[in-house]
């Protein structure tokens, strides 16, 4: 199974379309959205081609392929227009004998970790900074932001296939990579 990860779309039609082009090219099975889908947030600038209603229309076409968690900018009003669940603070996927703990990062993060086992993977968004590293036998992965990257990072997404997680820039070039032991 091949999983495609994006986070922090923040209502950008332009970057959502770029991400969906990559999803198709990557031939992934599912899209994992780590929160902040429609709203740009009070601390963020308006994203390129900001149009929450159009993002809703586009992304609902992929509802049967989406696993999503709630970000700090997502609300119950957003859930009313989306055809897939987004209201959970976290989700888990059992993937090749390890647990993937999916969250946005505003509640669960490195300072407030859930109980995980050695070799489990903590995957989050929120900070808009790509990360792929192993610390204390837990893998920490942040695919970055498809729309509003921070700290001079590129627009990025993630791909998990087998035991390798790759963070790629919007053009599909590998930016960071980690192999699970």
How many strands appear in the DSSP assignment?
11
The helix content is: 10-25%
Q: Count the helices. How many?
A: 3
Cα(first) to Cα(last) distance is: 18 Å
Main sheet properties: 6 strands, mixed
Please give a structural write-up.
This protein is of the alpha/beta class. The chain has a single domain, classed as Metallo-dependent phosphatases (Purple Acid Phosphatase, chain A, domain 2, 4-Layer Sandwich). 16% of the residues lie in helices and 30% in strands. The chain is built from 3 helices and 11 strands, in the order βαβαβαββββββββ. The radius of gyration is 15 Å and the shape is globular.
Brief overview:
The chain is an alpha/beta fold.
Keywords:
3 helices; Purple Acid Phosphatase, chain A, domain 2; single chain; 11 strands; 181 residues; alpha/beta; 5-stranded mixed β-sheet; 6-stranded mixed β-sheet
SSE layout and pairing:
Blueprint (H helix, E strand, L loop, with lengths): L1 E5 L6 H14 L3 E4 L18 H9 L5 E3 L7 H6 L8 E6 L2 E6 L17 E3 L7 E5 L2 E5 L13 E6 L2 E6 L4 E6 L2
Parallel strand pairs: 1-2, 2-3, 5-6, 6-8
Antiparallel strand pairs: 1-9, 4-5, 7-8, 9-10, 10-11
């Amino acid at each position: 199974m091949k999983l495609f990860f994006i986070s922090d779309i923040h209502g950008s039609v332009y970057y959502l379309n770029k991400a969906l082009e990559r999803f198709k090219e990557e031939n992934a099975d599912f899209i994992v959205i780590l929160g902040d889908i429609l709203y740009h947030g009070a601390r963020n600038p308006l994203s390129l081609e900001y149009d929450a209603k159009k993002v809703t229309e586009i992304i609902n076409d992929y509802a049967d392929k989406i696993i999503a968690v709630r970000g700090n900018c997502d609300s119950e009003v957003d859930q009313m227009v989306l055809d897939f669940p987004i209201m959970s603070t976290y989700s888990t996927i059992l993937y090749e004998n390890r647990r993937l703990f999916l969250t946005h990062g505003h509640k669960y993060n490195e300072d407030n970790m859930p109980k995980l086992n050695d070799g489990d993977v903590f995957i989050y968004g929120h900070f808009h900074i790509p990360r792929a590293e192993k610390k204390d036998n837990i893998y920490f992965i942040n695919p970055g932001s498809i729309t509003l990257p921070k700290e001079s990072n590129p627009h990025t997404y993630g791909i998990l296939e087998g035991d390798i997680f790759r963070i790629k820039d919007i053009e599909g070039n590998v930016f960071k990579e980690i192999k699970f032991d």
